[in-house]
Design brief:
By secondary structure, this protein is mainly α. It has helices at 3-15, 22-29, 40-73. Helix 1 (3-15) crosses helix 2 (22-29).
Amino acid sequence: RETAAVGAAIVAAVGTGAHPDLPAGIRAMTAIDRRFEPDAERHRVYDRVYEAYVALHPAISPVLRRLDAAASANPVGAA
């Protein structure tokens, strides 16, 4: 389902007076078909992955800056 389009349609419906306010528009135009509950084990795994990313980023920042400088100096399609 295209949630952005649904949101825009809800705002438009409220704006045209089809619904009195956003909560009413949301209630009228949406339905919960699935519910997702947090998974504690996956949360722990992602926390460990994020910790590794946080440690990695400072280490690769100098290389990323060099790559950015090289790309900026030689834009694709430049003669």
